[in-house]
Fold these 2 entries.
Entry 1:
Amino acid sequence: MISRKEVKHIAQLAKIPLREKEVGQFQRELGEILDFVRLLEEVDLKGVEPIFQVTGLENVFRRDEVKPSFKQSQALSGAVKKHRGYFQTQSLF
Amino acid sequence: MKVKNSNLADLNVVEALQGLKEKRFSSRELIEACLERIRKLDPTIKAFLTVCEKEALLMGQKADRLIAQKGPKAFLAKSLLGVPYSAKDVFCTKNIRTTASSRVLANYLPPYSATAVERLEGAGAILIGKTNCDPFGFGSSTENSGFQVTKNPWNLKKVAGGSSGGSAAAVSCGMGLFSLAEDTGGSIRQPSSFCSVSGIKVSYGRVSRFGVIAYGSSLDTIGLMAKTVADLSVGLRVVAGPDPKDATTLKEKVPDYSSRLDSLPRGLKMGLPKEYFQKGIDWQVKELTEKAVKVFEDSGLRIKEVSLPHTRYGVPAYYLAAMAEASSNLGRYDGIRFGQSRALFEPEVKRRIMLGTYALSSGYYEAFYKKAMQLRTLLKKDFERAFRKVDVLLAPVSPFPAFGIGEKSDNPLAMWLADVYTVTINPAGVPALALPCGFTKESLPVGTQIIGPQLSEPLLFSLGHLYQQKTFWHRKRPVIVNSTNY
């Protein structure tokens, strides 16, 4: 079972604002799912290499050449807040 | 003989191309027929989030002008000229609203198009609209969509499947002649089966993922849904192939799939994974799958039982891997550069992000994500071992046909367990072709899937094409469509 404290901690790591009543709901659901995935503990994984890339491709390079990309206006087109060609965010300090 | 306008939407891609070449109808008439279907049926079905009526008709006009100028030669450079299609709303389409079916992207206008979309446009295909799905691909029913639930055209009380439910419903009703979609854990195959259309989940890396809203980057594959395998073979040729913008695309040349449909090697062996036929499978799905096996057996294939021993660990391994990758991918929705606050994420999206974050967090990485990646090696080896004994596998897509809307939506785990036959395929990176294989006594569609080794799309297509010449399931249309023809 996962604690409310842990749920809040994960939500904070994942930057997902949660309302108080959502904490209890996710506590239940996450707990159930985590119990289910413990099924993996049945398998003997000694000596099994993890596989992250299924086609075996490695180090796919391209030439380091500058090519045209977005115009500034395109790059900013989805911005909630803009300021003189910059994305505007909340202050961190 | 002039084809009645409203019936044009019931043509498949190959028939439509033939008709356009022979000038029996125009691209504009074809598009208008599909738009008419959308107008009549979509208020009920709710397959579309955005319809591009003006743009599509304009492109249709351009296509007609090109055909008038160059005649059949116009189709040499543009193999899908004039054919209307829909795209799952996870494909970025320049200046056309793209939401991933999430409220976080409710008004997002991408400043660029996905490579797959650009390639289809280059081949003359015409985008008619963006289809509803589960948000970011998270779901198996479209019930998690931030906007609407897509109804199954065969029974409006049932789900269309997911996550590409909108695409499947659209294709089955002639709201566009094919659809561009994406499969990470069954998202093309399961809705294809629920809605009685054909769908291809390609080998990982066969089609560029550039411009497709990412779910699990080591699992996502881009594919198509259409009325026939022949249609899929035309479409895949257009979108497949290396892309410098996606470093995971395979360098291998793309075969001319449609020209090879009739070439089937002799002495093929088809394996039936015994773990897929154990308890939990609906008896009608089992029976229809066995009937499908018989068609292949009667066509000369040798049928053998094989084992994929790690199948039961497929669901937890897949979900851990997918969740972890998704939590990382969805970190980009910061509500600063685009999109809205993360508080607006749908509940299933929040659930998966948090699970993924947990699985990757300090202290848990070894227990969860690393284990999932190790299981992945075992799943891949299961398939490799099986493909040393047989050439392809045949399996059901879903343990049951389309379930009722609301039936599973309050139990996330039950929904996940329903993916048992589809999720083991993506971690191994192998391709699978979903085909309609019959209907239950309650008139619900059932699909089957043919699974092959990496890059075996030509073989899957040939087998699927053979099946569709010996059966007629794929020719049936939902009753609701008949109400629009008069």
Entry 2:
Amino acid sequence: MRIQVDLEKCAGCKTCEMACYFFKSKRFNPKKSSVRVAKIDRYGIDHPIMCRQCVNPPCISSCPTEALYKDGEVVKVEPEKCAGCRICIESCIIGAINFDSHRGLPVICDLCGGDPVCVKWCPTGALSLKNGPQRKKIRGYTEKKAEPLLEKWGITADTPLSDYL
Amino acid sequence: MTFSSWAGTVLEIDLSSNKISKKKLPEDVAKKFLGGRGFNSRKLFALVKPGIDALSPANVLMFSPGCLAGTLAPASDRFTVTAKSPLTDIFGDSNCGGGFASELKFAGYDQIIIFGKSEKPVYLWIDDDHVEIRDANAIWGKSTWEAASYIKQEIGDPEVEVVSIGQAGENLVRYASIINWHKRAAGRTGMGAVMGSKHLKAIAVRGTKDLAVANPDAFEQACREAFSRIMTNPSYQRWAEYGTPLLLESCNELGMLGTRNFETNVDDKVDEYGGKRLREVFGKKMRGCLRCPLHCTHFFYVDSGEYKGEFGDGPEFGLTSLLGNKCGISDLPALLKMNNLCNQYGIDVATLGSMIAWAMDCYQRGIISDSDTDGISLEWGNHQGVIELIHKIVQREGFGSILAEGEKRAPTMIGKGSEKFMYHCKGLSYMIEDPRSTRLFGSTYFTSTRGGDHLRALATLDLWRGVEPAELLFNDPSVADPLIVKGKGKALPWFENFCAVLDATGICKFTALCTWLAINPNILVKLVNSATGLELSEEALLEIGARIFNLEKAFNSREGLTRKDDLPSVPEKLLKEPLNAGPGKGRVFELDEILDEYYLARGWDKETSLPRKETLANLGLDEVVPELESVNAVR
């Protein structure tokens, strides 16, 4: 399970940032959120970034105090072991780790235990929780090949081929 | 006291002495005025005495985020900029979206008050508790976009929030604006010029503190309800997909355009530059201000033609109606180019459009000619000429230096009866929706405390003929009938009070009122109470709005404004000439009758419009009475 981001739908409202930290603390502070929206404002790009639950997380392997670990799919931190060196933040290949400067701890998306609040609060549907990787490209290839064959068999595809049937 | 929803500190900067001081936000002020426009209007009355030159160091420039900015409340990330206006010489303010308001709250500030004038160009850097006045020499002369980019690089953080002026503000164009991001604007009344007169190029903020609310669970509940009310509203789809540019088509259908400086009220070319074409041909994605589910901005790209390559965050109806329709321009790519220019230069599209429409009208009538306009042919629709003129206005060059002076002054510089074609109230030009077609919406232009302006009330009730809300709010369905006069003046204060409260909370008036009350006093009071810990009723909430509005009225009265100033600049046009098309055909605008009713409803003197002492006392504004009395500005 990971959170999928649709770049075309995201309007850059950053409600996700507010909801995330509020859920954890009942206060508001986007800088302590697990999700941060990167903006290339001039080009209309709004990109929510959060942990993708890497199979081989560079954050865990780079942590000098072994404070980071996997709990199932999600990455968590043991506060007592964390020195606040922020090497994990630099090691994350997509820049998904945030830093809570008041507690001195990294902030890493934990999917809210399976029901992420950012997904619930997102007003455009740009965020969604999906199983597995998107094999869109492969399916697109199959659909392209299938259409002429179905036509040859005389079957009219009245249901879109790309739906999960 | 631990503040909830307020950050707790007022920042005062004196640019003459470089003195920076912080004051605690007084609890009673927070409760009485809530925030944003409320805080600013109160301070403007206290700090700016009558008769000063708005471009002098004696003027005071204020920024204040709404009390709900920086929370999960929808469409709440707005701040108000206030000062005496160099355009109108009366009360001036602008409201702006984007992300600056919340950042101020996270840094710990509910208001910034700027005094004096810096000797050299500077920018303000606010990094939580650390506040610094920095050299802005390297960016003086640069656009708002360049300035923001430079500042972010100098600070080393791409996520800091910046508001800045462009060349228009630096050159004291009287209707210069202040820009956040690439198109969020504190547009009207020339706040950018005040900032420029103080040699203040920009303000950059970074806030890393937590913001708390009094009752988090109740607040979360109220936010959910507010988001839901907006997103399930019948008009949500329309605004979320098309934004304000769709109003061009709607106003055309209602016969409420101002084609070619109010020559007629319809335009057969609306399909060329309306919201539909903008979305279908040029729009790539919708974007919005922080925490807003309406995301009403088009991100556009022009891929062919004369303006190929133009891209950015899209125009509002203010631009397409005033620089487009009013000037006879229907070339949408040209308007998109103008949009980008105005945002980079930091200049108000509304006054700009009205100035150019006026100049075109004068040109067409032979009052001015090529020798006056530096050879630019101001035929209706000449968008290349208009773009050339915009550059000149920003640089105060040639004919541009006259247009840079604004609605009141420019006609006096031309003379020859040109003032007959400049349509404004108190020196601020108003929108194209003709009051003869929409009496409730149109009356706002004349009662607005900042001059000709529809946003003071945004009383769209009779534009859309909302009979049900009219019954609910006023027990009078006729308020929703744009052609019925009786009842309009009585209903108008409700909208003005509600808009003042919205501006105090930071919530967007477009989201609240163009969805037809998706945000109404009921949900607003739930949000405010759970956030602040106050226990306001809906009436008490609206009373705060009335308090703010009356304070602004007091400021103007102290400057010498009376009933005669609540009239259009060209009375013959609206009050005597019957409309020649649309639903209002054959009718004049019965403003006097409406004003009589309005002043009574407001508790102001009918003859002079001046507020009565009891009215001010009932609103807890006793302290302003002695000063008003000394200049005979109260009854």
